Amino acid sequence: MITVKTDEFGVLVHDAARLLRKRFDARGEEHGLSSAQWRLLVKVVRQRRATQARLAELLEIEPISVSRLVDRMEQGGWVERCAHETDRRVKLVVPTDKSLAAYSALKAAAVDVYDDAMTGLDDRERQTLMTALAKVVENLSRDETQIPCHLLEPQA
Question: Which of 48, 66, 97, 136 allows an S-S link to 56, with CB 3.0 to 4.6 Å?
Fold first, then answer.
């Protein structure tokens, strides 16, 4: 059994997130997507239509970064910008048939990555890990002015 001191919590969380990003990058390359593009595609498919400002909020990145990301995704045929019904100044980002078709494959790849990450953990340990991480997010969000983004997203 691995024994870890509690003062290594931050290092472990950081390393786990970094390694997950690397694994997602590798799996995303199979579809021609960077991890940032993969994340945007998932948000757009789940939202079905969103402003760039909303996407920036969900992805927790600057609006200019979302604009550039949407530009690249639009050029690749993954998303389209369309007019808002009531506000002509606003453009909505919507998924294309290409992204809708790729979504299930990307979701399956994510499940594979998560299964790899939790290899060796039984169902009870997996649930304990998920519950503990959700509590950490809740604790750290308590002083935030906004609700954590994962709580705002519709569940697929």
Answer: 66
Helix, strand, coil shares of the chain as percentages rounded to 5? Answer: 65, 10, 25
CA-CA distance, 50 to 81, in Å (whole number)? 10
Domain 16-117 classification at class level: mainly alpha
How many angstroms separate the CA atoms of 16 and 22, rounded?
10
Dist CA 14 CA 132 (whole Å): 16
Domain locations in the chain?
16-117, 121-156
Rounded Cα gap, residues 55 and 49, in angstroms: 10
Written as six digits, the tokens of 64 are 């200019």
Distance (Å, rounded) from C-alpha 34 to C-alpha 147?
27
What residue type is 97 in one-letter code? D
Kindly state the helix (H) or strand (E) to which residue 131 belongs, with its residue range. helix 123-141
Q: Do the bridges between strand 91-95 and strand 50-51 make them parallel or antiparallel, or are there none, so unpaired?
A: antiparallel
Greater confidence (8 vs 128) lies with: 128
Give the tens place of pLDDT for each residue, 91-112: 899 999 999 999 988 889 889 9
148 dihedral zone (left: phi>0; alpha: psi -120 to 50; beta): beta
Asked whether 4 and 12 are in contact (CB, 8 A), the reply is yes
